[in-house]
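PROTEIN DATA CARD
Card holder: tRNA-t(6)A37 methylthiotransferase
Chain length: 434
Origin: Natranaeroarchaeum sulfidigenes
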Amino acid sequence: MARYHIETYGCTSNRGESRAIEQKLRDAGHRPVDSPEAADVAIMNSCTVVEKTERNMIRRAEELQAETADLIITGCMALAQGEEFESEGIDARILHWDDVPTAVGNGECPTTTVGTEPILDGVIGILPIARGCMSDCSYCITKHATGKIDSPPVEENVEKARALVHAGAKEIRITGQDTGVYGWDEGERKLHTLLDRICTEIDGEFRVRVGMANPKGLHGIREELAEVFADHDELYNFIHAPVQSGSNDVLGDMRRQHQVSEFIETVETFDEYLDEWTLSTDFIVGFPTETDEDHEQSMELFREIRPEKVNVTRFSKRPNTDAAEMDGLGGTLKKKRSKAMSELKHEIVGEAYESMVGTRREVLVVEEGTGDSVKCRDDAYRQIIVQNASEHGLEIGEFTTVEVTGHNTVYALAVPVGPVPAGGKPEDRRSRGA
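Structure generated from the sequence above:
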């Protein structure tokens, strides 16, 4: 778990975003500290009202860069004028508010809730299906807190999901340290069985998003899982499988259990079964044993699989982990590699959202956005923002059809074009990587 320091500038909306970020960070086991010097990562939620404000943001970012090992900048200036920080020589990760909590994780397993009880937040139901994992990653401290996988019965999780839907949930988020190994402690991986039963046995109109699953666990059930996704519209066509490196040598040093080939085979299986889906993955840059050749192998894998959602994290040591005892790489080298991969990320993710422009999609309105906007998700769990939501009469929990009119690299912009066609699907859909 990481120590974080967060600073917020600007309006009430920004303060609300920071509160949401902090809630997710604390739920994941990270802890706040009072100063950037004491933090593993500093987060600056920026403002850009006037030119003087911009100058103040640049100056504070320069100070934070000197005071902390890792700097994340989010907020209005970061998203509207992120190039200003780069032009001033500030080395930071420029991220959307929603991506900050994941980025802080340093590739570790999430600890999303206390215990395994479901939570309803608006129309989003959070369902932890198990605790713990089967991995022994050399860099991860989370395993010391969660232990090995402990899977409640499928029937118990189905009932929890049913209760969430009956309580008003329209989106169920399946979470866990590693959802792909659910049931392993009982001798049989059961994620595909659980998802199939949730979709077939629960009445109501809802969507299900599956949380992080390590590639090794997914690989063993890739055919069964992809078939369940193809059979059920209730499932968002979305998989988060953190590969962490494109080098088998580095994966071995990380003790990640999977090989690059297994990750690729899993991706190819979902490509075969699904016309359109989103691949989310993570890369750790600058692991102590990563060579220039290893880094280039990660870049090549990135170009090959073309994930639409990516978390790029610079390696940082965590206490009481084996990787903390390794001789680390220099900060300058890690920054250089991180910058190269982040630039590739923006290129590939931007192309994916650009390909959506002009298409019509069924979406679920899941959350309020900033100002008079709402956040929506399409069938592949891509984020779509509709502005002036009140003028369109959009409400949280509503299904509707939108036309994508533009994008901002990590999300699309759209306008409503009418209700969801009865028994129909949006037109002009495109496959991942098209």
